[in-house]
Every structure is written in structure tokens, then in C-alpha cells.
Known about the structure:
Strand order of the largest sheet: 3-4-5
Radius of gyration: 45 Å
Structural class: alpha+beta
Largest sheet: 3 strands, antiparallel
Strand content: 15-25%
Number of helices: 5
Order of helices and strands: EEHHHHEEEH
Helix content: 55-70%
Amino acid sequence: xxxxxxxxxxxxxxxxxxxxxxxxxxxxxxxxxxxxxxxxxxxxxxxxxxxxxxxxxxxxxxxxxxxxxxxxxxxxxxxxxxxxxxxxxxxxxxxxxxxxxxxxxxxxxxxxxxxxxxxxxxxxxxxxxxxxxxxxxxxxxxxxxxxxxxxxxxxxxxxxxxxxxxxxxxxxxxxxxxxxxxxxxxxxxxxxxxxxxxxxxxxxxxxxxxxxxxxxx
Length: 217
């Protein structure tokens, strides 16, 4: 705090105009000094800056909090939308798989309409299904999944189906190998990636098939 001195003079009297022989000098009682304490200079500016900083800081924190909430909601909306799209595609794929399973069962059981179904299936698949070609393509990256697929091709089995679930520790896959005369299911270990989870499940089925083969002999 600094003292500001304000000088006030009384209205001009005859003495101040030199009419009383004082040569225009002010009489001693004509000057008043008033000291008023008030914040000036840097003190005043520092107070204003401090208030401004507190106000800006509160505004920034409020803005960040509101934006973070909006970002979280938007990100969740996008992820749910992508997941829903995949779930809908999965439903369509599972419907197709079930339809093909039904056709396979009809042909293998020798139903009344199996001849028409055989012709339709051959026409539908002659340009798309090339199992030998698919096997040669996958050979470059051998894995338990490939080994199991290859075993299915050689035995004319349907390929196994996988279900991958997200867990706290990573991913876990369940697998089903279904044929007319047998069905094998298993769950793999929890892994950090989905391919590793599928490979773990495939490895379990391969072990079961090996046990079945050894018991048969």
C-alpha cells in the first residue's frame, strides 16, 4: 500500500491575488494535504491478475470437464455402432452357415429333394469353392487353426466354428467341430490377442482328435 498525497487549495482570496501585500503568496493555511491509503501501481494490478487467473482457471476446468464427457459419449457411440454392425453381419453369416449345414445334412441323409439340391449346390459353388486352392494359400502360415482346417479338408468335414469373447485378462475362444456322427467342443486359454485365443482353442480340439484316434487303434 502506498500513500497518495492530494493537495487542495482554498478559493483564491485577496491575499493570493496580492491585494493584501503578500505578493501573491499563499497563506500557510491555504494548502491542505490529505493522505488517502489505497492500492496503487503493481499492487492493484497484481490483485486484478490474481482474480482473473482464478476465474480463467475455473472456466478452463469446467470446459475440459464438459468436453471430456462429450468425447466419452461420442467414442462409446462410435464403438457401439461398429460392434452392432459386426453383430448384424455375424447373424447373417450364422444364418448362412445354418442353411449350408441343413443342405449338407439333407444330401448326406439322402432326402427326396436331394437331387435338385445337389445340382443347385454344384452350380452355386463351381466358381467359388476351391478347397485345394484355399489349402495351398494357407500353407504359408501354419498354425493350429490351419492344421485343424487341413484335417477337416482331408476328412471331408465341415470347418469348425469359433466364438471369441472379450474377458478382463484378454480373449478366450470356444470352438465347435460338428459332424453327422460326432461333435467336439472346447475352450482355449485366455490370450492377449484373438488369433492366439483361436489357436489355443484349435489346439484343444486337435488334442481331443488325437486321443480319439489313439483309442480307435
